[in-house]
Each structure stands twice: as C-alpha cells, then as structure tokens.
C-alpha cells in the first residue's frame, strides 16, 4: 500500500558542551514512550524551517534565533511515510518548558542514549557521534615523526577524527605510521579512518575507511566497516555516497588552496546548494581552518576537514 509522504521538521537542540536534547513521546501518541528529537509536521504554506520554529515554540516555549540546515532522511513507518528535515538549533531565547513530552533529556556526546528510540533516528544519532573536525595526515610531506608529534598535540586539544592519507609512502612505512597514529587516536577516544587501502584498514583494526571519488563511483556496495566516508566534488558523487549508505562525505575545495592556488573554490553558497537535502553529514574541505567552523555549519556542513589547517598550517 502506498502511504502519503508527510514532511516533518525536527530540531537538534545543541548546548555549548555538545549535548543534544531528546523528548519522550507522551502515552496518548503513536510510539508512546519512544525518544525523539523535538519537532512536528510541516503544515500547508510552511517551509520546514518555519514549521520547526513554530513547533519548538509550541512544544518547548522557546523562540529560535539561530537555525542551521543539516540532514534530510526518509523513513517508512507502519502508519506513515515521513520525510524528516533535520536542523541544528544553535541558539534560542526563553527557558525550556516541556508541554507535550513525558520527559526531556540532554544527552552528552558519548553518553548512553535513552531507549526505546524512534527507528528513523538511528542514523541521526550515529551522525551526532561524528566529530566536527577531521584532520587529514600529511606525513609524506612533513615526515612521520613530525606528523605524529602534531597529531598528539591536536588530539590533546580535542581533535576526534583522523584520516590517514599517505599513498606515497611505501607499504611498510605506511602501515607503521598508520598503526602509530591509530594507537594515539584510540588513546584519546577518537576515530581513525584509512584512505583507499581497505586491507590496511582491516589489518590494523581501524574504525573505518575513506574512499576516493574514483573508488566511490566504482563501488556498488558499502565496504564493511563501522565508519565509511568518501571524497566528493559533484552532486552526482554526493548522491552516490548517499545511495551506498555512507556515513559522511567530504566536499571541496570550498576556497583556493596552497596545493591548487589557481583552482577557484566552490564558495559557501555553492557548497550549500550541492549538499542541500542529503541524508548524511558532509564536511567542508579546502583552504579552511577551525576559524571557519561557524560559517561552514551555517552553510549546512557538519564540520570541516583540513590537511594543514588542523596541524597549525593553512590547509591545502
């Protein structure tokens, strides 16, 4: 039976410490007792953003002052086919005053999530485990010892996601470096993915793999890792990454880079156009540092990825 598509707006309210808000559905509702992100149905004549602002005022008594586009996903429930428009709610006025849920809970990154949870929110909860900054290694350029040194410093400062991309190193040296990097990242509680070399990623027990755009387009199945991402440059590549069910993508270059100074960057407006409505987080890449984080997220990016920028150098 074909079910009518229902648009729903959902808000990920974020505190300064990274915690997000969940509400427990009331006893007289469908999926009573399940935990969800606040929000509700988009009414005729409303945009999803307008609907969310209205719902949050009705449900929580707050006035949204800063909303960011994030993800859009579809889910087929027994009672409805829903298209969920997720936004990050970065700022609001007023005190939270729950009016419709049985309970509210702030969930800090890494903490257990209350159960049971609405099935559609599984990928969203996983996406919220993904750190906002990815550091991409450049041991080939600066030397393995120096890269490990700056990696340690960045991890101490809160870096939580690292991509090992060292195709130019010989196989033995690349594996030694990857193992050393993984040891440091694991000790700090972070995630490490290996670019292209899936066998190396499996051998060292990495958290996942990262596909080049070429390998992405040649793939018909998702590699069997907990975390899988890909580098993208076009909407077609982003849509293929989504079709494979990847956990994230990188898109760039957003700005001119030291490596390709003559190549024009996408700019933030074009970045937002290319990533609009995707079901997985997208990191902005190219000429960026951590100072670009707010602008990147306002454009719909999950966060930023950088080669030089994370290690204290202007990114390539």
| CATH topology (level 3) name of the largest domain | TIM Barrel
Shape assignment: globular
**Could you state the order of secondary-structure elements as H and E?**
EEEEHEEEHEHHEHEHEHEHEHEHE
Strand content: 25-35%
In terms of quaternary structure, the protein is single chain
How many strand units?
A: 15
CATH class of the largest domain: Alpha Beta
Fourth-tier CATH superfamily name of the largest domain: Aldolase class I
Radius of gyration: 20 Å
Low-confidence stretches: none
Structural class: alpha/beta
Number of helices: 10
- How confident overall, as mean pLDDT? 94
Q: How many domains, in number, for the residues?
A: 2
Q: Which strands sit side by side, in order, in the main sheet?
A: 8-9-10-11-12-13-14-15
CATH architecture of the largest domain: Alpha-Beta Barrel
Largest sheet: 8 strands, parallel, barrel
What gap, in angstroms, lies between the N and C termini? 51 Å
Helical fraction:
25-40%
């Amino acid at each position: 039976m074909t079910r009518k598509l229902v648009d729903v707006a959902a808000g990920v309210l974020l505190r300064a410490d990274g915690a997000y808000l969940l509400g427990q559905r009331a006893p007289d509702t469908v999926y009573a007792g399940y935990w969800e992100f606040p929000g509700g149905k988009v009414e005729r004549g409303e945009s999803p953003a307008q609907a969310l602002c209205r719902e949050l005022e009705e449900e929580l008594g707050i006035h949204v002052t800063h909303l960011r586009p994030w993800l859009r996903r579809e889910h087929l429930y027994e009672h409805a086919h829903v298209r969920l428009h997720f936004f990050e709610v970065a700022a609001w006025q007023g005190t939270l005053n729950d009016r419709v849920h049985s309970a509210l809970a702030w969930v800090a990154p890494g903490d257990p999530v209350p159960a049971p949870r609405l099935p559609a929110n599984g990928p969203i909860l996983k996406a919220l485990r993904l750190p906002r900054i990815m550091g991409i290694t450049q041991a080939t350029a600066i030397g393995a010892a120096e890269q490990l040194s700056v990696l340690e410093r960045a991890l101490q400062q809160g870096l939580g996601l690292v991509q090992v991309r060292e195709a130019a190193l010989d196989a033995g040296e690349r594996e030694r470096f990857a193992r050393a990097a993984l040891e440091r990242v694991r000790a700090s509680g972070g995630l490490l993915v290996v670019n292209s070399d899936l066998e190396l990623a499996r051998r060292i027990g990495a958290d996942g793999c990262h596909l080049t755009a070429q390998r992405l387009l040649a793939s018909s199945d998702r590699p069997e890792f907990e975390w899988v991402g890909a580098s993208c440059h076009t909407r077609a590549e982003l849509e293929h990454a989504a079709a494979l069910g990847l956990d994230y993508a990188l898109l760039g270059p957003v700005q001119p880079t030291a490596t390709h100074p003559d190549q024009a960057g996408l700019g933030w407006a074009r970045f937002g156009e290319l990533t609009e409505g995707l079901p997985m987080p997208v990191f902005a890449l190219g000429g960026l540092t951590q100072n670009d984080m707010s602008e990147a997220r306002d454009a719909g990016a999950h966060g930023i990825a950088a080669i030089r920028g994370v290690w204290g150098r202007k990114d390539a």
